[in-house]
């Protein structure tokens, strides 16, 4: 009996079409990937690789190139490659127990601050604390009396250089209600340190006057952000949306404005926010840099330069520089509006006005020097 053998014919046109479609899809996917990576900030790439230890990074190279093992034979093995991959995929660090909880319990995100430059004695127990208040708390203490301001120490001689009547610094206060317990009679708890009248705007006014004494034109915006939020039925979380309107309006009216300074105060207590220098107490300060904007690197460079100058005066005066993304805060902080934007937290709820003014006076001199050095 003859067996019949059938050979299934191959449709070359169909195969060719399938290969062509596959190649086109591959190029489309590659194009989409490259386009999406185009907007990926270096900050996030740093975050991805930060999860991998140095030993793990070298181990990954060793799998591909044996030469990386040379000189490392005597060293003990670091983390197993499985641990490295697990941390990379899950964002859980087996050597750091708090990483198991920090992304599941929202209140623990404050312990995930990204310390770019650590201040003296800083650890996760004394990290910055951002206040979160209701509208009622924001608008409390409306009748507090203005303190008697210390006079500005004007230089003996007029400044040798000026901005010729141009205002180049814009000082504002996103959390304009943030105040200090010593300025509010009877207040003892941090959530009582707020006032629509006596608040961080005093520091902005001091900074403005100091800059002008050094020949630099400045504007100190005194918008009552709390009142504006109340008028719009917005909660505390829309503070930066409100202050953005203020800053954009200022920039549209004055094209000479170049430096944007948002002054806040921390919610930490006095033992964390105060230092003593030559027998006098100063309020400590620190910088916040938002990573979710195009000016991140330039604003970070500015913060580093200023922080470095402060450390030259006294290392204990600065608590460092911190970055924040959308998960940790606003993430932008209006810093996309200028490459010369900084958010400065000066002191905490327990600091007195003389302590705060001493720090502002020093900051004024450092800002003035930085400005003239970059003209």
Please give a structural write-up.
The chain has 375 residues and is an alpha/beta fold. The protein has two domains: 42-100, no CATH class; 135-373, Aminopeptidase. It is built from eleven helices and nine strands. Strands 1-8-7-9-4-2-3 form a seven-stranded mixed β-sheet, sandwiched between helices. The chain has a two-stranded antiparallel ribbon with strand order 5-6. Helix 10 links the parallel strand 7 (285-290) and strand 8 (318-324). Helix 6 packs across helix 11 (353-373) and helix 10 (296-313) crosses helix 11. The chain is elongated and about 90 Å long. The protein starts with 11 loop residues before the first helix and ends with a helix. The mean pLDDT is 82.
């Amino acid at each position: 009996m003859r067996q019949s053998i059938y050979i299934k014919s191959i449709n070359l046109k169909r195969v060719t079409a399938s290969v062509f479609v596959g190649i086109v899809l591959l190029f489309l996917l590659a194009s989409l990937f490259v386009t999406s990576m185009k907007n990926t900030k270096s900050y996030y790439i740093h975050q991805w690789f930060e999860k991998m230890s140095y030993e793990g990074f070298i181990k990954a190279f060793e799998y591909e190139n044996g030469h990386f093992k040379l000189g490392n034979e005597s060293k003990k093995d670091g983390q197993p490659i499985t641990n490295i991959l697990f941390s990379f995929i899950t964002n859980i660090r087996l050597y750091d127990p708090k990483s198991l909880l920090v992304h599941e319990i929202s209140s623990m995100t404050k312990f995930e601050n990204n310390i770019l430059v650590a201040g003296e004695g800083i650890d996760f127990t004394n990290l910055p604390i951002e206040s979160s208040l209701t509208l009622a708390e924001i608008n409390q203490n409306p009748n507090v009396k203005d303190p008697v301001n210390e006079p500005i120490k004007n230089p003996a001689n007029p400044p040798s250089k000026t901005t010729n009547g141009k205002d180049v610094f814009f000082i504002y206060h996103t959390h304009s209600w943030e105040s200090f317990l010593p300025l509010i009679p009877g207040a003892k708890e941090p959530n009582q340190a707020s006032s629509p009248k006596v608040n961080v705007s005093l520091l902005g006014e001091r900074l403005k006057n100091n800059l002008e004494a050094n020949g630099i034109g400045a504007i100190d915006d005194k918008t009552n952000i709390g009142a504006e939020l109340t008028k719009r039925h917005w909660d505390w979380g829309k503070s930066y949306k409100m202050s953005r309107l203020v800053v954009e309006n200022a920039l549209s009216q004055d094209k000479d404005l170049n430096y944007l300074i948002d002054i806040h105060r921390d919610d930490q207590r006095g033992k964390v926010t105060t230092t003593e220098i030559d027998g006098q107490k100063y309020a400590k300060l620190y910088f916040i840099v938002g990573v979710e904007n195009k000016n991140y690197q330039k604003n970070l460079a500015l913060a580093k330069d200023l922080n470095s100058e402060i450390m030259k005066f006294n290392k204990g005066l600065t608590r460092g520089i911190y970055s924040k993304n959308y998960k940790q805060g606003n993430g932008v902080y209006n810093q996309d509006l200028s490459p010369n934007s900084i958010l400065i937290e000066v002191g905490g709820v327990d600091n007195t006005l003389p302590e705060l003014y001493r720090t502002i006076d020093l900051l004024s001199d450092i800002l003035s020097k930085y400005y003239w050095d970059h003209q």
